[in-house]
Structures are given as C-alpha cells and as structure tokens.
Write a structure and sequence with these properties.
202 residues, Nuclear Transport Factor 2, Chain: A, 6-stranded antiparallel β-sheet, 6 helices, globular
C-alpha cells in the first residue's frame, strides 16, 4: 500500500482491514454495524488490488462511502466558520468535491491486502454520538487502535470522524483546508480538492 499518507491514513493503511467483529456486537448496535459495513467495503477494495486500478477500487468504495458516512456534516465541519458565508450552490459544490476527494483518497491508498485484521470492540456512548473502537492488526506491524465517531441522522447511523492517537481526521482536514478557503473561498477550496483528487487518481 502507498505509504506517503497523512498521519491518520498512514496508521490506518498500515494495518488494513479484515472485518472480525463479534456478530452479536454488529447485530445489536447499529453504529457498530455501520462501521463493519464500511470496513467490509475497504476489504473488498484491498483484495481487488492493483488489478482493479484506482478507478476500479473507487467504484467499489464510492457507494459504501456515500452510504456509511455523513459527508454533508463532515464537509461543513472541515470547512469551518466560513461555511456560513457560502451560498447553497457553493456548499453543494464543495460537498461534491470533498466526496470525490474522499473516495479517491481511500481508493488510491487501500490498494493491496496481506493478511490484515480488524476487530471491533464495545461501543461507547458520547452524548448523542457513539464511539466504535477497533483494533487493527497486521502480521508485520504493531496493533493500532482507531475510534470511529458515529452519529444518528434521518437515514440512520453514519460515520462522521475517525480518531488516531486522539487526533481527529476532520480536525486535520480543517487545518489543511484553511489556506485555500482563506485565499479563494468556496471556489478556491473546490479547485484545491480537485487538484488533490486528480493526483490520487493517477
């Protein structure tokens, strides 16, 4: 797998995903079931590997990302306070660009499988949200604990963030997007995301 990733992605990819959640956990808790569904898609993309290419893996992951993540909420948080100044058309454009980037990021980096495992553990309630801890292991790497933050939407439970070593993926995104938003507003951020996406899709 590609190792030139962000801190969060590097840790996540180093372990890879093989869903091994206790059946009772996924069946009894919809938040855990949502995380399990997403990681099942990641596993399918990893197993498709280089033969599928980035575009092929994107086709596997795009429906899962749309179904398992609350991309609208994630985009709004990643943009930060400037979101309130965007028009509805700009918000839609930024959300679409963020979605394309998210799919391309996973498709580009989850490009192979070598016996990794993913184990979910007991779900924790944090206010209105739930935290789904998981242990990612690899034959050649130390285990890594990730925390999936999941919240309730009108369509059911959806993932809105992932933490590694206490660091929020969305907080990292907000820091990364601050420059493009400050210099170019919504249009600048869309261009920035499209450039990142194009690089990932090569």
């Amino acid at each position: 797998m590609n190792r030139s990733l962000s801190l969060f992605a590097s840790a996540l990819l180093a372990c890879g995903v093989l869903v091994a959640a206790a059946p009772a956990l996924a069946q009894s808790d919809p938040a855990a079931a949502r995380v399990e569904a997403f990681d099942t898609a990641l596993l399918a993309a990893m197993r498709a590997g280089a033969a599928a290419g980035t575009q092929g893996r994107a086709k596997i992951l795009a429906p899962a990302i749309a179904q398992d993540f609350d991309l609208a909420t994630m985009t709004r948080f990643a943009v930060g306070p400037s979101w309130t100044s965007f028009t509805e058309a700009q918000r839609a454009a930024v959300t679409s660009a963020f979605t394309r980037f998210t799919v391309a990021n996973y498709a580009s980096n989850f490009d192979g499988y070598s016996g990794q495992t993913f184990h979910l553990s007991a779900v924790q309630t944090r206010g209105l949200d739930k935290i789904v801890p998981c242990l990612l292991t690899s034959p050649k790497s130390a285990p890594v604990t990730l925390l999936y933050r999941v919240h309730q939407t009108d369509e059911g439970w959806r993932i809105i963030d992932i933490y590694f070593n206490g660091v929020s993926q969305l907080t990292t995104r907000r820091a990364d997007f601050a420059g493009p938003v400050k210099s170019g507003g919504a249009d600048g951020l869309v261009k920035h995301l499209d450039v990142l996406t194009a690089k990932l899709e090569k």
